[in-house]
Design brief:
Number of domains: 2
Structural class: alpha/beta
Bound molecules: iron/sulfur cluster
Strand content: 5-15%
Mean pLDDT: 93
Radius of gyration: 24 Å
Length: about 500
């Protein structure tokens, strides 16, 4: 260890050290060595000896040419002037951060809170007797606001409750957007999130005609799915029926669309990593996105029955990744979205716009949620707090405000400030910070502070475990594992997951 490091033992960040040709970097003990990362989303695993030589400026093209060249290529060693390095890095960083500069791309329409199911982890449950349907006048005002976003490519997502219970309003939104989009020079993608219990042939045919992508929930094999998502009949059977039918129609009509599905992981799911993947493959999906359960809404009330520790979740996640690698080695193409996104950030340097893992996060400047009654929120999670009459994240109303009012509101500014990972005391020197993101709403619900306390935080421990699991594979001593995981850099990834 250098003198500098001994003095700053608790910090895991090294600022620019031109005298030693060392670029700014994050580091952490990792297995039997060190993991190094930097803001340009490069990473490298070094043995203890290599790390010491690196810090002591003892790696050069005479002593260890290969490692020296890799360290230059990955921007850990500077071999140009300080000014050139800073200007080149700034331009790379700007490209990686491109999604931050394009305006709000994701517009979520909550067309009703009514639902057909009673999922055990639901965050949106409300009084089923109170009618909560979006009205036509709300649609017109909301779509006008959507068109005010400076982003050229917009995604309109239909959410609920079960959105198909207010199908006429979905049609009205689609048709109004189709009229206005060409006038404002916008390209539009539509996505419907639904549980298939209210799908019919007529509705599907309309959705197909209007190029609407479909995403559903699938928690795993029938017994597990039905336990998590109770319905009058088997909710799994509905998913099975429509998945088969839709995939068949896409194939028959040669439609280049993919049906997507998301599992929510409860305590009941932890025993079935292989079975969950096998169900996805059997139903024709080629990826899944493992989402940890957040202790909000009904999930919080029933945490003892359905929740788990960060360690339990990470063990499950590692089994999922191990199974996927096994399948990939057997020639089956299948990915997990979080791992794929991380690999794409680290290897392909894609400017991934996943709202929770960017800095600042997507609240208001990346996504906006329009509630059934016209209230506008920073994001869908902020909107869900509105159901329990906490309006902290409401940034306007479609009848009273413009897009600019909403994005310039004090609440939106506060969310941007609170989700800048570079300035968070616990995150600013974390080796995973170039890939991670802060969720102020999670912090608000768990810690009563938008800034949170990462060292004791459940979400942070889960994310740290997920990052560690993927970097373990990316830096594995087994070449075939490294090759398989690196190949995910070119897979298709659904950022809305
Ligand atoms: S949230 Fe946790 S894992 Fe993410 S950067 Fe902060 S400290 Fe690191
Ligand atoms: S506040 Fe949380 S849920 Fe909302 S956009 Fe930011 S990260 Fe996502």
């Amino acid at each position: 260890m250098s003198k500098h490091q001994k003095k700053n033992k608790s910090r895991n960040f090294l600022p620019l050290q031109p005298q030693n040709n060392i670029a700014p970097l994050f580091f952490s003990r990792f297995r039997d060595g060190y993991l190094l990362t930097n803001q340009l989303r490069d990473y490298i695993f070094l043995s203890v000896r290599e790390f010491q030589d690196f810090l002591d400026n003892k790696i050069d093209h005479h002593t260890n040419k290969d490692l020296y060249n890799i360290l230059i290529k990955k921007s850990f060693i500077i071999n140009s002037s300080e000014e050139t390095f800073i200007s080149e890095s700034a331009s790379k960083l700007r490209k990686l951060s491109a999604p931050l500069f394009i305006g709000t791309t994701l517009h979520i329409f909550v067309v009703t809170l009514q639902c057909t199911q009673k999922c055990i982890y639901c965050q949106a449950a409300q009084d089923p007797k109170k009618p909560t349907y979006m009205q036509s006048s709300t649609v017109n005002a909301a779509v006008d606001i959507v068109m005010q976003s400076p982003a050229m490519h917009l995604t309109i997502e239909f959410q609920g409750g079960e959105p198909l219970l207010n199908f006429p309003i979905i049609c009205k939104i689609i048709e109004r957007v189709e009229i206005l989009a060409p006038k404002f020079d916008k390209k539009i993608s539509f996505v419907l999130i639904n549980n298939f219990t209210a799908m019919t042939d007529e509705k599907f045919s309309y959705l197909l005609q209007h190029n609407v992508s479909i995403c559903t929930s699938l928690d795993g094999p029938k017994a597990l799915h039905d336990k998590n998502r109770p319905y009058l009949k088997s909710s799994f059977d509905e998913v099975l029926f429509w998945t088969k039918k839709i995939n068949h129609i896409y194939k028959e009509k040669n439609i280049q669309k993919k049906l997507n599905a998301l599992p929510t992981i409860t305590k009941h799911s932890l025993k079935y990593p292989d079975e969950i993947i096998d169900t996805y493959i059997k139903l024709g999906f080629d990826s899944l996105s493992v989402r940890y359960l957040s202790p909000f809404g009904r999930a919080q009330q029933d945490w003892l029955t359905i929740g788990y520790s960060a360690e339990e979740f990470i063990q499950f996640y590692q089994k999922i990744l191990a199974r996927i690698i096994e399948l990939n080695l057997d020639g089956v193409s299948f990915q997990e979205s979080f791992a794929t996104m991380l690999v794409q950030k680290a290897i392909a340097k894609k400017p991934i716009n996943f709202m929770e893992l960017r800095s600042p996060c997507g609240a208001a400047i990346g996504q906006i949620a329009y509630d059934w009654n016209g209230d506008i929120y920073t994001c869908d999670e902020g909107r869900m707090l509105g159901i329990v009459k906490d309006y902290s994240f409401r940034i306007g109303n479609v009848f009273e405000n413009t897009y600019t009012d909403c994005v310039n509101s004090n609440t939106s500014s506060m969310m941007v400030t609170a989700s800048c990972i570079e300035s968070h005391p616990d995150c600013s020197d974390c080796v995973y910070s170039p890939f991670c993101g802060i969720c102020p709403i999670y912090n608000y619900t768990q810690h009563k502070s938008l800034f949170g306390y990462m060292s004791s935080d459940y979400r942070c421990n889960i994310l740290k475990g997920m990052f560690t699991s993927v970097f373990n594979l990316l830096t594995s001593k087994e070449e075939h594992v490294r090759n398989i995981v690196s190949s995910w850099a070119s897979a298709q990834v659904n950022e809305s997951q």
